[in-house]
Amino acid sequence: MHQTQVAPRPPPALWIWATETSQALRGHRLPWLAIALAAGIGGYFALPAEPAGVVLISWIWLGVTFAWAGWRLRASVGFIFLILAVCVLGVGVAQLRTRIVAGPVLEFRYYGAVEGRVVTLDRSASGAVRVTLDGVRLDRVAPDRTPRRVRLSLQQQEGLGWIVPGARIMTTAHLLSPSGPTEPGGFDFQRHAWYLSLGAVGYTRVPVVRAAPDAGGWFTGITKARGIVAKALRDRMPGQVGEVAAAITTGDRSGLSDEITASLRASNLAHLLAISGLHMGLLVGFVFWTVRGGLALIPSIALIRPTRVWAAVASLPFATAYLVLSGGSVATQRAYVMAVVMLGAIVVGRRALSMRSVAIAAILVLLWRPESLTGPGFQMSFAATGALVLVFGTLARTERPDWLRGWRGGILSLLLSSLVAGMATAPIAALHFNRVGHYGVLANMLAVPMMGLAVMPLLFVGLMLMPLGLEALPLALAGWGIEWIMMVAQEVGGLPGAVSAVPAPHWHVLPVLGLGMAILGTARSGAVRSVGLVVLAVAAVLWVRSPRPDILISDDGRLLGIQTEQGRWLSRETGVSFVAQSWLENDGDMVAQAEAAGRERPAAIPISLHHAATKTALPQAVADCARDPGWLIVSVAPEVVPEGCRLIGPATLSQTGAIAVYLEDGILKVWTAREVQGRRPWSRGP
Description:
Its main location: membrane. By secondary structure, this protein is an alpha+beta fold. 52% of the residues lie in helices and 13% in strands.
């Protein structure tokens, strides 16, 4: 009796394709894992409601299951399951971080004594000195209900030189909880404040006094060292030159004038003030090449010793010192992680500038601070770094003519890096800040080489020689370089049409744009790069087609904005200026609030709007609504609401936040800030 052998069924075509794709990515998988981690974190922040605590355990169990499947199927489609595991890990890490930073948020308006230790010192958008306090004490507020941190704007502007990080101060202040978005889908300051453990913000008009002697310890010691360095630079480099030098070495931007800040922003050079990847990279690069060049002069060492590794090891302490000296902001911490990864790659014999190194840095930063994914600093830093690695990696594989080598090649490399980084970060900057600097690439090509070749190295040399009293020459030369940068900023920022406004797109444009850029930078084949280009094209179409709200109502009912053919009409010439300016900027409208309020209010809208921003205007608004029923928008609730009128007052707005109305074919589509935020720990109210 013969047995018939049945041929095994071939695997499905999809399985074959998935296996071939998974195996083809060997050696290039880390960037895709970084994308998966970012996707998981982004998915967490897009959730409409905060998952229950037990769900965190479920994320861990699901991630372990996917990881186990990836290990078992590592010879075929295992990498796909590993991507899923990392994506789930991103959700769990973000939720865990949210619980770790959780702290009390002020639930009422507070006026009284405030005491705390100064953590940071900066300036608000209006130029007022602003302090962030921890170890806070509030009068008649229980410790378990007192916010971990409080931020105060000081109306007193004179005699504040003694206020430095580490000082414990006391004053009488007005406080309230962090405000929500100025419009649905806008910048969520409540979420931003949550991850800073910032439970209240406010201001004080009375003098600030010292509550206790400055505490000792490493924090105070570092703070004093930073203050000494900043003062020394200001004394030796007077005027705004010294203020810029203090800003890029210690992070202290409190003395910068509004004119210099505005010109740097208009010319797209404001990033030179933020201690980030550029500054850390320039410092580490200078130390690295100085040490390696010095060792190359000693043949007995250069020929037999790993001078490249020695230079990398020598650069690490200077990177750490710069992190401490600059105040250790989030941007500087991110730049430090990237620098450590690059130097570590050199030590272990790998390429420092590679997508693998960028991916490792991104993974470390996201695991440490997952909320940084939503900020422009993270997005612009890694967009610029990824673009530079992609372009210079391609150039490294090509044969360059002799005239591109040596010092000429170095200068051209700096110019090219400015061009590439500017083009990579331009769409992200436009999306977040609603501004496009048309000559930003030109300004960066003129200023960044000066920063890299002169300012940063000379400031470093000057600080090293300061204990010997030999800092005069390098600091003077660095001052000339800073003057050149300020001149470029003023000239380029003052050109006609240097800056134009860009309307804010819908919130879904940013993740699509980020995904397209990530795929384009990670792809190893032309087909995958084509997918990245298609995704970027989709983001561009979505951006162009993003409508702006026809009607906007502020979260306190004090401001109303209606879109007209000339731009948005505002109900007030003054007051609520932050909200008004935010609306106009998001519209891509560069006019002042007073000019917007002077526009003619449109009459042909499907609903009647009656607005009372103050108590004195309330009777007239109620009477108007009684004659022509519609929406009664008030900042103070009336005693009687006329029949047929829909009241939008303090009780409603406390639950909804800001309101946006879209008019489509005569149909009203209403969105609220709370609806877009979802039921999350940082948002309050249903």
